[in-house]
Amino acid sequence: MNKAVRKAVIAGNWKMNKTPSETTALIGEMKPLVKDADCDVVLCVPFIDIPAAIEAAKGSNIKIGAENVHFKASGAYTGEVSADMLKEAGVEYVVIGHSERRTYFGETDQTVNLRSLAALNAGLKAIICVGETLEQRELGYTETILKFQTKMALTNVTKEQLKNVIIAYEPVWAIGTGVTATADQADEGNGFVRAAIAEAYGADVAETVTIQYGGSMNAGNADELVSKVNVDGGLIGGASLKAVDFSKIVAAASK
Ligand code: 13P
């Protein structure tokens, strides 16, 4: 990792886990374990848990994120949450375009782009997820898919706004499966993302963008993954629900 220009970011994605009271308890457990982190520490939690998470994280180095955001400012969009709502609640980060949103809830590259723009225009930091399926990888399309998804997600995002963008490379086949990409596969995938950013914004700008790896990252494999030049931290699912495991990943990214 080019630590001279990029700080690692370890972000938990809790997905549909933890009630508000469980949120308070888990963040209480995590706080002392991650307090000496030399990386940014973020927890992206279900909407309903956001107030409890912000309260529990007060006075610590843990930042709170949401797991999605709608692209309209307000209106008749039942079940959706706007960027201004998140901002006023005290949220700093938001995950956008996770493969579970793309697969189960019809997110497209276009809505991922619109949601990213809404988040950035509201002053939120966007963690935008990209990743190929196993079929796409086996057909040799990994580079094509990663570059396309990255460029689509960043359409109309200015160079200035890009400072608030993190891309998370999450191979779909590695999410929740226990099958982690090898460190070299993660590095290569993140490299494709960085190359796409370089094509759109220039190589110098691309060097400054934080690109995470996500997909079965855990306390045992984090060290090797984050040691790679293009892996600037991780987006962690299952292991972010366990305080000790999550803190070990934070420690690996702090070296
Ligand atoms: P797991 O770490 O559970 O594989 O999930 C990764 C992920 O989807 C993070 O967004």
Features of this protein?
single chain, 255 residues, alpha/beta, 8-stranded parallel barrel, binds 1,3-dihydroxyacetonephosphate
Question: In words, what does this structure look like?
Answer:
The chain is built from 11 helices and 8 strands. It has 255 residues and is of the alpha/beta class. It has an 8-stranded parallel beta barrel with strand order 1-2-3-4-5-6-7-8, surrounded by 5 helices. Helix 1 packs parallel to helix 2, helix 1 crosses helix 11 and helix 7 packs across helix 8 (183-201). The termini are close together. The structure holds 1,3-dihydroxyacetonephosphate (13P). 1,3-dihydroxyacetonephosphate is lined by residues 13, 98, 170, 175-176, 214-217, 235-239.
The biggest sheet amounts to: 8 strands, parallel, barrel
Cα Rg:
17 Å
Class inferred from helices and paired strands? alpha/beta
Strand coverage percent = 15-25%
User: Overall pLDDT, averaged?
Assistant: 97
Low-confidence stretches: none
Order of helices and strands: EHEHEHEHHEHHEHHEHEH
Small-molecule binders here are:
1,3-dihydroxyacetonephosphate
